[in-house]
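Pasting two entries for a bug report.
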Amino acid sequence: MEELRTARLVLHPIDDGDLDVVTRIHTDPELMRHIHAGVPHVPEQCRADLDAARAHWRRHGCGSFVVRLHDDSAVGMVGFNTPVWLPEALPGRDIGWTIFQAHQHHGYATEAARAAIDWFFLSSIGDRVVGIHNTDNPRSGAVMERIGMQWLLQTRHPDYGYPVEVWETTAPTPREDR
């Protein structure tokens, strides 16, 4: 899989050289606040997180991308996972993003998510993408709306009990020749 490029960003599939980006995200209390238990990982856990992200690529043909500016500055991550923890969201891949605080409020999450979803559908990996967000994080829901996802349902996180919203988008239907 080659990198994806947008007007401002470069997305490349996560690889062994990205442990620093994974560690910056997964050990940051603010960035992890709305993800599952809301508890940052210790640095020793981050290698396993990176290995799991790489394994998702091998098993499913999609996964996490590291997002960088064209000058190679790290912006964060965007990518796909399989939401087996939330059966209401299946079938489909869950798209998520985490953008470093210094790069928030610039539209990078929207731009990166759009590029990743377009690639997902053009590559025929699947025909449905969901987005799941903690309702305490309305900015994530706003990104889902901006990228054209439709609100589907609200439920509770099965392990932690807080409310989550599920949004979805589906692959464009090919137009019939006339």
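Entry 2 (this is the one that rendered wrong in the viewer):
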Amino acid sequence: MKETNLTFSISNWYQRHLALIFAGLVALQLLLFYLIYRNPWVEQAIFTPLVNFYALLAGKVLAFMAFANSVSGDMISSSEFAVSIKKGCDAAEPMAIFIAGIVAFPAQIKDKLSGLAIGLLILFFLNIIRIITLFIVGVYAPDFFESMHLAVWQVAFIIVAIVLWFLWLKYVSSKRTKS
């Protein structure tokens, strides 16, 4: 009889503390992310090529938009302005928040994978748009570059990641209701 009470108590505790468990899982994943993100090998093997790829894509889009530029590594430059894409400008943190929210939430793996694929693609392309707009601001309104870079786009990116998670959550919840 005590086993049943113990099982019931653990189950009952778990049900009453779902939000706490979710928050703990998200926090644990973000801690793990930062431990990995700060690793010099990971930076060299993953994030340096990633920011170089962002620069290459943004440079091509800028050229298509008639902004003459050259790309070298993580640097996009023109005669009017140059921007270097560094760690922190790689969208990794908003992506980590988004991933942590989806992974920590109890849902079917198929829903998690589709949510991750769509959300991460959106955040990836949003970062390209971010880099392009920052370059254009640097060319036409350089006094506003730092504000756009540190205040507007940083906050907007985190908000978009959270909104994407809420949209995924709404989708998963609506599937549960239909079942």
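Dev reply: Rendering is fixed now. As a check, the viewer should reflect this: The chain has a mean pLDDT of 90.
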